[in-house]
Amino acid sequence: MDTDDPIEKGKAAIVGELVKEVAKSPKVREAGDQIAQTVLTISKTINVCLLPIAAVNFGYEKAREYFMNCFSKDFENKTKSIPKECVVEPKISIVGPALQGLAFSCEEDELKSMYISLIAAAIDVRKAQDVHPAFIEIVRQITAKEAILLQTVLSLDIMPIAQLILHDGEDGRFLVMTRHLMSVAVYTEGSNEQNIVEQSMVENWIRLGLVEVSYEDLLATRAYYDFVKGAPKYLELHKVHGDRLTVGQGVLSRTSFGEKFARSVGILPDLNFIA
User: Fold this and answer.
1) Best CA proximity match to 49, nearest among 65, 68, 63, 35
2) pTM strictly above 0.90
């Protein structure tokens, strides 16, 4: 962020004033005390001045109820295994935005869990250095369904992916009809609806730097691509175009950035804890 940017300075000033005004409310102070007590049960070294960030969201009814009634238990469950000697003061660049995001995702369990995992990682000296501020923005920019699918996608180094190609006559011309067909059905016991990966989701994960896709590489075991011919999109297009429709096989691979994200939100175990 450009600290000389007048717009950013203006935003910072507004937020600062908002925190001051909200903090005057007795109800907000009461909520802050409860949250502070939760943090202090983990370690008295946590800087409770971070808590007004949560107070900014106190005017949002569902967020207020969550911070008052549920945050303590959720946070304790995520942090109870952290040894006292490993607790450090977290960076406000991580915890502040994470609390903001948590306030507006408290009804979506998958996203809520990711935010709390990031907060927990930020206070653990063994993990804190790998928690990038961009990870909070990633959680902001995915849906709850994507969070469910990423539990599988980011737990693997590589996965099969396909595109549907329509060939036009004998002159070699072709048209890619659909990109990024994927299924996590072979890796999970979830419902069919949960297993569907939409093209826009894959494009979003690529944009966020979590995964890479290549149609120049493919998995040696061709059976991994059998899911394609049962996909609704393939059946729809094959009914119209017949054998002119072919399957382009490829791979989706997790990036190193995606791996760090997965470890920070609890999808993968932290390397520090692997024997």
Assistant:
1) 35
2) no
